[in-house]
Request: fold
Amino acid sequence: MSAWGILQAICLVGSLSVVMLQPANYEDEIEVNYADAYYNEISEGDQNAAEAPTTNPPPPCTAPEFSKWDKLFTMLENSQMKENMLLQYSDDLMKVELRSLRGEVLQFVAQYGGSCAAAVENAARRAGSQSDQQLQQVLNHLKKEDTELQDQQTWQTEVLQRILNASEEQAERLDKLEKWTKTEVGGRSKSFQTRHATLEGGELENGGQLDISGELQSLREQLEMYVRATSSRVLPAGCDMALFFPMRSPTTHAEIIPHRSMQTHAFTVCLWAKPTELLSKTVLFSYGTTGNPLELELLLNDQNALFTVGGEAHLVEARGVMEEGHWTHLCGTWSSDEGLASLWVHGQKAASSPGVAEGHELPLGGNIILGQEYSGDGLARRFGLQDTFNMEEAFTGKMTGVNMWNRILGEDEIAQQARADGRSCGNRGNLVAWGVSQIVTKSGVELIY
Reply:
């Protein structure tokens, strides 16, 4: 049987149940009335009369007289007949009512069957539409997950490619180092072997044995010196150039021309520094204007790194993070909304302080100086013949990867900038971009590669 036939059968059974629940209202009521009420009571006189034999036979053509028992049996027979008649009447009445009910049901089905079928069809359509919508949602979800999986695979492929490129680059550097070591040390090693062979082939005085430990120790020291010299030439984070500050003087510095206006309410400045000597105050990065020559500073105090905005009234300090002759990555972040200034060392937050120049705006029209800072008098005498800087605050060493943004970088971005094994010297800033922004060197500062 089809689904349509089952639905029609359900509608028919429901209609019959509605009709059967209605109370029956018959115009004719059946009244059963028993005319005479007989009781099963026989007196002693009647019983004796019944038991006594009759001697005289009844006269001919006369009806015999019935006793109480005969009347009782006659009454029972009559009641049985009435009961049969009543049952027959009830049966006939039920047949008539069933025929009438059947006609009414057929009429109801003919009248309401179409609307019921339409309702069932609409319900089936709605159920089908909902199923289609759910299936479409599941398909869209699967497509979205497939797209995310493809994006993740693409990202993993890019990361693996970067790792492969970095490995190839390191292998090339090692090959160059090996070739250079062989070239520089080969001659000394051959001369040592020649002297050693000569001494072994010659006659030793007094039959003694020549001690060559001194020669071996000298050769080891020379090899270590060559390795240190080579490693000192390697720049961090894949940077291919650096600024070299060879000495302290009142004019030794470098100036960077920014890409756009320095006017901002938030910024991030990052750089790599390798100091030759650590003193009580050494300036790495400074930005100053005629109104305030110390608008922004990133400086060193012995082994401590300092960061300030709007002057030296509020200093953010990270202690014991610098070391002579070693590369260190520093980042300073600041926002004027809460005046929150933070100092990051090797991608980790080392110090933070609120209330630093809160509500302040970094003004435009200033100068970015590397390795020095302008004092009030020095900035006024910038174009004069006198010294414009303090020689005791000059930076000596190497500096690379100087970048600046007009926003606060996230933790992941700062950690990416601080990777010593990174490539392309990290991401470039939109205010200062290392390798792109113009750099003007003064008084012996050199660009090394």
Q: What stands out?
A: The longest strand covers residues 266-275.
